Amino acid sequence: MRVADNLILGVDPGGRHTGFGLIQVGPGETLLLVAQGCFSPDQTWPYPRRLAYIYYGLDELILNYRPGAVAVEGLFVGQNIRSVLSLAQVRGVVLLAAAKGGAKVFEYAPRLVKNTVVGYGQAEKKQVARMVTELLHLTEVLAADAADALAVAICHAAQMRLSRRLPGLSSRHLRRVGWRNLTTEDLATLNYDPDKK
């Protein structure tokens, strides 16, 4: 079964709660919510069983919807080593599920996600959740981890839209600077029409 290039799965990895948010890029670059939620394994379980719970949940989600892209939030700078190791293990499970499902994987720094969605790289979780709700025209209240995952998916959609409009700009450059931080010259190329020279 082929993957759906217009479906983006955002994932916010965490040992206690791994948030997920699946969006569809519709006509006119509209963003539509397809599914959202959290995988929250029982904290009394041994750690390998918790990782398996997250893996099988993501695997089922990816196999059911076949997203073309899985966007994952990167690590926070300054986390303690125990948290980093735990999070790295969860991220490994996420990457495995994505690879098994045939999806391309993209990673975005938390600061870039916030900057893309809210316009401010130091935004708080409540601000991110509020903007996600507005951008997707939702009325329901989202769990914080699901909102963060949807923010990652929205960030990926914005980066891909920008890369199509700025074909000369590398994806590495886009990930580094974000669409809100482009130079005036970069922005001028958004209106570039190859037929008008």
Give a short summary of the structure.
By secondary structure, the chain is α/β, with parallel strands linked by helices.
Structural class category? alpha/beta
CATH class: Alpha Beta
Helical percentage: 40-55%
Radius of gyration equals 17 Å
- Number of alpha- plus pi-helical segments: 7
What is the subunit organization of this protein?
single chain
CATH architecture identity: 2-Layer Sandwich
Strand content: 15-25%
Helix and strand layout, with pairings?
Elements: E1 4-12, E2 18-25, E3 31-39, H1 47-65, E4 67-73, H2 81-100, E5 104-108, H3 110-117, H4 125-135, H5 144-165, H6 171-177, H7 184-188
Parallel strand pairs: 1-4, 4-5
Antiparallel strand pairs: 1-2, 2-3
Could you characterize what this model shows?
The protein is an alpha/beta fold. It has one domain (4-191): Nucleotidyltransferase, domain 5 (2-Layer Sandwich), CATH 3.30.420. It is built from 7 helices and 5 strands; from the N terminus they run E-E-E-H-E-H-E-H-H-H-H-H. The chain has helices at 47-65, 81-100, 110-117, 125-135, 144-165, 171-177, 184-188; strands at residues 4-12, 18-25, 31-39, 67-73, 104-108. Strands 3-2-1-4-5 form a 5-stranded mixed sheet. Strand 2 (18-25) and strand 3 form a beta hairpin. The N and C termini lie far apart (42 Å).
What are the key terms here?
197 residues, alpha/beta, Nucleotidyltransferase, domain 5, five-stranded mixed beta sheet, 5 strands, disordered C terminus
